[in-house]
Design goal:
The protein is an alpha+beta fold and 413 residues long. The protein has one domain: Cytochrome P450 (Cytochrome p450, Orthogonal Bundle), CATH 1.10.630.10. It is 44% helix and 11% strand. Helix 9 packs antiparallel against helix 10, helix 13 packs parallel to helix 17 and helix 15 crosses helix 17. It is globular and about 60 Å long. It holds the Pfam family p450. Belongs to the cytochrome P450 family. InterPro entries: Cyt_P450, Cyt_P450_B, Cyt_P450_sf.
Amino acid sequence: MSTTTALTLADLDLFAHGAPWQVFEELRRRPGLHFSSEESPNHGFWSVTRYHEIVRVLRDTETFTSTKFTNLEEVDPELQEQRRSLLEMDGLRHRALRRMLQGEFTPQAVAKYETFLRGITAKTLDDALAKKEFDFVEEVSADFPIRVLARLLGVPDSDTGQLIDWGNRMVGNTDPEHADVLVDSVDSEKYKHVPFRSPAAVEVYEYGRHLKAERTGKGGADLVTLLSDGVPNDGNRLSEDEFNTNFLLLVVAGNETTRHTITHSMSNLLNNPEQMALLKNDPSLIPWAIEEFLRFASPVYHFRRTATKDVEFSDTQIKEGDKVVTWFASGNRDDSVFDDPYRFDVTRNPNEHMSFGRGGPHMCLGNALARIELRIMFEDLLSRDVVLERTGDIDYLRSNFVHGIKRMPVRVV
């Protein structure tokens, strides 16, 4: 059984004011999977909205592959190899590249950045709070993780503004404020060979190639050098296309999700002052509270898989080549897993959220880094004798991919 109605999760208006929680709840309660239609040249997709079914899809890479791409865009077959990053791989090559990178992102590896992280967190907050009235996104959420990314890439702080701009323009490819060309426009055709169909991706490629040319063979300890000089355990160095796409992936993934989680979490604490008081009174709760921050924020709405064969799943007949979209945000509100899922509870335990995925080979590589960034940010912020309040509405990114916040004006009171 499947459900097909006029409702489509391809409709960006559903996401104009943040996550459409009621829509997700309705879809979880319907039998089978829901089919969302799309405008040509795309062909529509099946939505997986229940927690345990999402997990099944993520773990079954033989039936539901990432190799046909993980966003809703249907990439031309002749361009797939040119655009393929770690996200769009399965099997041996995926494991080889992931293993090459994962040593830089283990809890032990990221712990060495703690002193550095505390220093830049303090500076970010000092500068923002001194202004008394400011945009929390611009002054705090965007500033902090991008400085961490600059350190990992080995680039100067003076480049951070450009890195933020590139991320905005690529991830915001469905938002007229951010996109150079909207992803579904005729103008985007000239950029179909790069991720997000964005001219910003062309600029990121050029920036990455310049860094690579400077560092190849120099024995550096940064991520650019690792991509340039590293040899995955399958013995095959990264091709030029693989360097480009995976460098771009680091630029986007190293900033966007943490940035939006910080903003959502500050907003959720302002909405739930009793939860903020708990953390202020007992900072030892903060490391665990981060899991609720991540669950409630759900910074990435979805990732897509593609069926490799005809299969029956959740009483739904799926055809080979059909897009199957796992909605992490919906899974994070599934009441079969989370008691009272719309309650923000910093002591929630257990908290097996899926903001980084949930099992399977594509679990977010940077999850330990994101956790330490979030922990240090809120340990510092909540230790300060300051009170913030919003001074205007939250402005959400027009996107059904990233649960993003563009602006959140606040002031110190």
